[in-house]
Specification:
399 residues, alpha/beta, FAD/NAD(P)-binding domain, D-Amino Acid Oxidase, Chain A, domain 2, 2 domains, seven-stranded mixed β-sheet, six-stranded mixed β-sheet, 19 strands, binds flavin-adenine dinucleotide
């Protein structure tokens, strides 16, 4: 039998999750090889990362180079932007209510790519900008072949190769996928009024319209709508687009000018039957895809990486043993399944014209608006699963 302890960990994919996984595992002392093309600068999205993800990035020395480009989010608002019979009340969440300086920070994806790429050059993790073409399980190892014809032997694979993951297939993990009749239009804009570090989510009949602060008098927008309207928004000129954005926000931020041209992202969902199997661990979009509501995707991907750093053995034991595989599945299943289900349900409740569904959503938001312990619970759970429960239990013990 081959000694798996001498074989490297291969991180498949050099998207944000793959890079963060390679950097943090290398920092923990593992022998890591990251395979995949680095993302280019074409992704014009921004990513809202919540405080638990920021704290993890701090712990692996990545945050100090991201922070100068990041904008804090101290207030989050949900507003009803529908014209329905049952309108939901607006709810405002303040980070100070749960003793946090901010809920998190909003960062341009191009900044994340640049900082993580620079960190990789200084890290002990090796990187090869080549795609993987095949995996073969050989005893307690995996033979990895790349499209340039070379190959290497790995102890385990971290599958950070996105939603169409080849590594997930090689593990024998099936995935349920679905698509939404929705497209997210993303863009950034300047505005004449201050955003006061506030992120605002308008709930519309077609999905959320979310405005997130950037540095200065600038914000990014994720506008979830029908594919037809998305195509129209991409086709109109920037002055007309700015007017539509301003109107949709009821001029909340004053006059708007488009700074970063719009891009569109069709929305889909994916959930696999398992999160680790046959020496292959899923992380990021190989493990979970859902609509961009409440800034969850990369936050969840960073929690996958955090779970890997906590689960893989540091004492030279076999990182692909059945015990480690089970431990990772136990750690990740509840969080991923709960988030995927909650985001899907919230998204569908926005789209539904069914009156009882509207009444339940409206009632839930009204409860959140008036009942501050429930609001703090939801805010804590939104940041990190279990933290709302832990806080409530601790406080009950003190009463
Ligand atoms: C409009 C929109 C807004 C969003 N906003 C937020 C937000 O505010 N906050 C948040 O937390 N999340 C957000 N998300 C989600 C977030 O963008 C994703 O969770 C994140 O990008 C997933 O990163 P990843 O590295 O897992 O996947 P990807 O970025 O897809 O990276 C996978 C990488 O693997 C590579 N690859 C594929 N196959 C192979 C192979 N065979 N060999 C080698 N490499 C391979 C690909 O080329 C790619 O580089 C948003 C998503 C959308 C669509």
């Amino acid at each position: 039998m081959t000694d798996t302890r001498t074989d490297p960990i291969v991180v498949a994919g050099a998207g944000h999750v793959g890079l963060i996984a390679a950097l943090s595992l290398a920092k923990s002392g593992y022998n890591v090889i990251n395979l995949g093309e680095l993302p280019g600068r074409s992704d014009k999205r921004t990513t809202a990362l919540m405080m638990p993800a920021i704290r993890f990035l701090q712990s692996v020395d990545l945050w100090q180079d991201i922070e100068p480009h990041a904008a804090p989010m101290t207030t989050m608002r949900i507003l009803d932007g529908t014209r329905r019979l049952v309108r939901s009340p607006s709810v405002t969440f303040e980070a100070s209510e749960i003793g946090e300086p901010a809920f998190g920070y909003n960062i341009p994806n191009s900044t994340l790519t640049a900082v993580l790429g620079d960190a990789l050059k200084k890290s002990t993790a090796q990187h090869k900008a080549v795609s993987i073409s095949k995996y073969n399980h050989v005893g307690d190892t995996i033979r990895v072949e790349t499209v340039d014809g070379s190959s290497l032997t790995a102890s385990i694979i971290i599958a950070a190769d996105g939603r169409s993951s080849l590594a997930r297939d090689a593990a024998g993990i099936a995935a349920r996928t679905w698509s939404y009749n929705q497209t997210a239009v993303v863009l950034s804009f300047t505005h004449t009024r201050d955003h006061h570090d506030t992120s605002t989510e308008f709930h519309t009949e077609y999905g959320p319209f979310t405005v997130v602060p950037l540095q200065g008098q600038r914000s990014s927008l994720v506008w979830v709508t029908t594919p037809e309207m998305a195509a129209e928004l991409l086709a109109i000129d920037h002055d007309e687009l700015a007017k539509r954005v301003e109107d949709r926000m009821q001029s909340m931020l004053g006059a708007v000018a488009i700074e970063v041209a719009p891009q569109s992202w069709p929305l889909s969902g994916l959930v696999p039957t398992s999160f680790a199997r046959n020496r292959i661990f899923l992380a990021g979009e190989s493990a979970h895809v859902f609509p961009p509501i409440g800034a969850q995707g990369l936050n969840l991907g960073i929690r996958d990486v955090e779970a890997l750093t906590e689960t893989l053995p540091v004492d030279g034991g076999d990182p692909g043993s059945p015990d480690i595989i089970s431990a990772y599945n136990r750690k990740r299943s509840p969080d991923i399944l709960a988030r995927t289900g909650a985001v899907d349900a919230l998204n569908r409740s926005l789209l539904s014209d069914f009156l009882p569904v509207q009444m339940v959503r409206s009632g839930a938001l009204e409860l959140l608006r008036v009942f501050s312990p429930l609001r703090s619970f939801v805010m804590r759970e939104g940041l990190r699963p279990g933290s709302g429960f832990r806080f409530s239990t601790r406080n009950a013990g003190h009463q």
